[in-house]
UniProtKB/TrEMBL annotation:
Compartment(s): Membrane
InterPro entries named in the record: AA_transpt_TM
Protein name: Amino acid transporter transmembrane domain-containing protein
Pfam family, one: Aa_trans
GO biological process, one term: amino acid transport
GO cellular component, as recorded: membrane
Length: 343
């Protein structure tokens, strides 16, 4: 039952993250294809859903790669794109912050105490969605034994890239623009940084999130193909290729349709982080550890059990408050929502 719950949560998070990434490649709180077209086209007639469909076409093509292993080169490219985005973001922020026409910076936190509190938990939930990318290393279950050292090495690399890129861009952007910084930092730096720099940064982020969409879809593909594939037939036989193409195309189509209908990525990213990624990344692994090693009552295990229990308790509180904060934000923003928005 516990494993089934974890698998169901993982599958749901994979779909939700895929929808969010598909839309985020086009618009939202991270770099955008829509932003690139707005910069290079004088009369940009493309709508938001047009950009999402363009992203979907690239995802549809890349999603035909058969396994996690076949994505290894794309994962390397994704890492390089993260670093490129980081460099562009920092450079643009420094140029903007040192500009003679730089805006007045205000680093104060706006709003009432309740607003600030819910904002903190909402932000923590969004950060969990962002920092949970390395969980893919843990769930793919394709490593040859001994797998522990390889998983640890993979997680260290993932978190090193995530922390170095995310924090450096966040800190430099906040330094340059204060609390007026936009969700897409390149939007704030448009009047100050070179045009080519903002286009390049948006392009790096857009391509990276296309790759992330493909990666997040893989657990769903594996689940689907485990039910329909013939293990006795060749991987690239017609018997296995046809249902793979049809099923993967259908799943990508569903993700793209939902992204075009509901492109409210920041709010739903917070809900995903609070309700999905905190339990999946923190609570369930520690809970399973305590269950598996419950019989070994050594002093070390007792201390580990106690520490895990404290972390689980704190994480459950954060999950509850983060979910409330995310739902509250969605309710507050509901008036700005519409199906298939043009921008």
């Amino acid at each position: 039952m516990k494993v089934a719950f974890a698998r169901g949560l993982q599958t749901g998070e994979a779909l939700a993250a895929s929808v969010s990434c598909a839309g985020s490649s086009s618009s939202g709180s991270i770099p955008t294809l829509e932003g690139i077209f707005a910069e290079i086209l004088v009369d940009n007639i493309l709508k938001l859903y047009d950009c999402i469909v363009i992203v979907g076409i690239f995802v549809l093509f890349l999603s035909q790669l058969p396994s996690f292993h076949s994505l290894r080169h794309l994962n390397l490219l994704s890492t390089l794109l993260c670093l490129g985005f980081c460099i562009c973001g920092i450079a643009g922020s420094v140029i903007s912050g040192l500009s003679s026409e730089a805006p007045i910076k205000d680093y104060s936190v706006q709003g009432s105490s309740i607003h600030i509190m819910f904002g903190v938990f909402n932000s923590v939930s969004i950060m969990m969605t962002a920092y949970a990318n390395p969980i893919i290393v843990e769930i793919q279950a394709t490593l040859e034994p001994p797998s522990t050292a390889k998983i640890l090495k993979g997680l260290l690399v993932c978190y090193s890239v995530v922390l170095s890129t995310f924090f450096s861009v966040s800190i430099s952007g906040y330094w340059a623009f204060g609390n007026s910084v936009a969700g897409v930092v390149f939007t704030s730096m448009e009047p100050f940084a070179p045009l080519w720099l903002t286009i390049l940064g948006n392009a790096f982020g857009c391509i990276q999130t296309i790759i992330a969409t493909v990666v997040y879809l893989q657990p769903m593909f594996a689940k689907y193909e485990g039910m329909v594939a013939d293990v006795n037939a060749e991987q690239f036989s017609l018997r296995n290729v046809f249902p793979r193409i049809v099923g993967r195309s259908l799943l990508v189509g569903i993700a793209v349709l939902l992204a075009a209908m509901l492109p409210f990525f920041e709010d739903f990213s917070a809900l995903m982080g609070a309700f999905g990624f905190i339990p999946l990344c923190i609570i369930l692994p520690l809970w399973f550890y305590n269950v598996v090693f419950d019989g070994k009552r050594t002093l070390r295990n007792r201390l580990v059990h106690m520490l895990n229990g404290v972390i689980i308790g704190i994480s459950m509180v954060v999950t509850a408050l983060g979910t409330i904060a995310a739902v509250r934000k969605i309710v507050l923003d509901i008036d700005t929502y519409s199906l298939f928005p043009a921008s």
